[in-house]
Amino acid sequence: xxxxxxxxxxxxxxxxxxxxxxxxxxxxxxxxxxxxxxxxxxxxxxxxxxxxxxxxxxxxxxxxxxxxxxxxxxxxxxxxxxxxxxxxxxxxxxxxxxxxxxxxxxxxxxxxxxxxxxxxxxxxxxxxxxxxxxxxxxxxxxxxxxxxxxxxxxxxxxxxxxxxxxxxxxxxxxxxxxxxxxxxxxxxxxxxxxxxxxxxxxxxxxxxxxxxxxxxxxxxxxxxxxxxxxxxxxxxxxxxxxxxxxxxxxxxxxxxxxxxxxxxxxxxxxxxxxxxxxxxxxxxxxxxxxxxxxxxxxxxxxxxxxxxxxxxxxxxxxxxxxxxxxxxxxxxxxxxxxxxxxxxxxxxxxxxxxxxxxxxxxxxxxxxxxxxxxxxxxxxxxxxxxxxxxxxxxxxxxxxxxxxxxxxxxxxxxxxxxxxxxxxxxxxxxxxxxxxxxxxxxxxxxxxxxxxxxxxxxxxxxxxxxxxxxxx
Length: 472
Fold this sequence. Notes:
The chain has helices at about 70-85, 90-95, 110-115, 135-155, 175-180, 215-225, 370; strands at about 30, 35-40, 55-60, 60-65, 190, 200, 275-280, 280, 310-315, 340-345, 365, 405-410, 430, 440, 445. It has about 475 residues and is low in regular secondary structure. Helix 1 (about 70-85) packs antiparallel against helix 2 (about 90-95).
């Protein structure tokens, strides 16, 4: 204490210092220790896109889902949304539903998947598809609130929601709770040291987790490569081999001489018309997406970072990297394209306005008045920041290009792609309002505070005992 005052003492004003060690790991998340790596293409650019030239960047530690989001979890989201909004705001429920028609093709019989893939229990553990970038973003926000609500219930602060739903409008959201706009079914609040009474949970308590979100392209690529597995010497920064895929080697077959030798390491289209091998010896054993815990995880313990389904990331797509931009070194820590800075809306007296029907505090883009005295950034919407266009000449979307500010990066390749697209350095884009039978997603979360979990995150995967069924 630099002032000599005592914390957690009512006689000294009751200024609180929480008993906090480090951020807890949310459900299904894996801590990815940050570091530097060469982001970009690591093999021949066979499409001649030149849209991801290698450059060295650093990614801060973060969390990412061990698996893609499965149908069961997304179905829980739609069921919850239906229960809470179908009476007053039915469009919220219908907007959350995946587009099952993505399975239809002109000369293919895929109608059984149209009617069954999302809802039939045989596909519970398969990755959800037919979800747009906006739907994935909404799921991340909803998931954040359900996880934090669970934490509050398990700590005895809130009671379980019971039969809440239908016309219920007072459901838990983290931001409404912090803004004192959620009452809820309180069981027992925290003790207020200053008054001796009780108080709500504050952000300074460190009890609630940060928001789930989509990973950035840099985070996703770093997590997919999992170069931590190529540290052959303890406490050394040297990585012995580069990687073309989330595993070592140049092929997608398991190479160790045991009963799994020759088995596929990912779910992809091996050749024209060959999605899973021959009957009696099915190789990747999946003509469509496979269950989310299929195949061999990478050295971070992440499943299907190559193949199965391509995955949405948060970045806006541009066919160039910061290496071609002036002052490239300014953007080599946690690189990201897509910033659109907002602030919460306040009334004339400076108070936060009332939450909306979704339990969210309304936000608006930062105004020019707010930005006029800033030095670190001068615009709120930076999706097209230094993207090669002038104010007079912009992307002629729909005529000369499909690229726009609504184009989002997808990574990882899918069950319907050739091996080339399974390399983490390759990149493509899809419109943020569109969906596909080949695109799913996984969530990420910021790591706050220390870069490692008890000082072990950098080494915890080196001694991993790999007992997974490598051949499914």
